[in-house]
């Protein structure tokens, strides 16, 4: 049986590092706001991270894995000021853009992690620490020979579930049909997660429509959502 410690598969990362130059505005907010809002994986102290101390308050914390250019993260943070929003991304320009949104909307409930969320979850997040995990449009690795690189796998979902508090949610969305089917099969097999719906979830009105999703729809790819709740062993 695979364990949480074996979640790292060869070539599998929560997001893929891309070499993209930051704009002048992204560089500016990086210089002025990163020390307050962000941490790199290397900057984190060993052991479990004190999320209350990092955010400066005690509140439910939701982790978004692969926040991209941050537009959805910012809109969700504006809509739910009572929630701590933690965005994990390796792409510096995306984190810079998110900080521009944070600055524009004067948000104090957003923090940023530059690094791989798999390592972060395994090494720095305490069991039961998260109120939710969001994974919107992870890299589909469409070629069949690359499917093994896909993020959503049994050991990964087991790791995520272990970091969710009872009643916490795992929300997935993808526009690739075969990946959606795989996500459904993997999550259904995890005993500590319970599907909130009979299969696919209706698209939540509160999930922002990003440019990426609009493009997928324009190209004829159906977007599917899955929403699972963490249950206790007595509910299995």
UniProtKB/TrEMBL annotation:
Q: Which GO terms describe its cellular component?
A: tRNA methyltransferase complex
InterPro entries in the cross-refs: SAM-dependent_MTases_sf, tRNA_(Gua-N-7)_MeTrfase_Trmb, tRNA_methyltr_TrmB_bact
User: At which positions is S-adenosyl-L-methionine bound?
Assistant: 64, 89, 116, 139
The entry's substrate-binding residues are 143, 175, 210-213
Tell me if Heme is a UniProt keyword of this record: no
Q: What class of enzyme is it?
A: transferase
Quickly give the catalysed reaction: guanosine(46) in tRNA + S-adenosyl-L-methionine = N(7)-methylguanosine(46) in tRNA + S-adenosyl-L-homocysteine
Q: EC number(s) per UniProt?
A: 2.1.1.33
UniProt-recorded Gene Ontology molecular function terms:
tRNA (guanine(46)-N7)-methyltransferase activity
User: Sorted alphabetically, which PROSITE patterns does this protein's record hold?
Assistant: SAM_MT_TRMB (PS51625)
Q: Which Gene3D superfamilies match?
A: Vaccinia Virus protein VP39 (3.40.50.150)
Keyword Transferase set for record? yes
Q: Which UniProt keywords apply?
A: Methyltransferase, S-adenosyl-L-methionine, Transferase, tRNA processing
Pathway entry:
tRNA modification; N(7)-methylguanine-tRNA biosynthesis
Q: Describe the function of this protein.
A: Catalyzes the formation of N(7)-methylguanine at position 46 (m7G46) in tRNA.
Q: Which family does it belong to?
A: Belongs to the class I-like SAM-binding methyltransferase superfamily. TrmB family.
Q: What is this protein called?
A: tRNA (guanine-N(7)-)-methyltransferase
- Species of origin: Kribbella pratensis
The opening ranks of the lineage are: Bacteria, Bacillati, Actinomycetota, Actinomycetes, Propionibacteriales
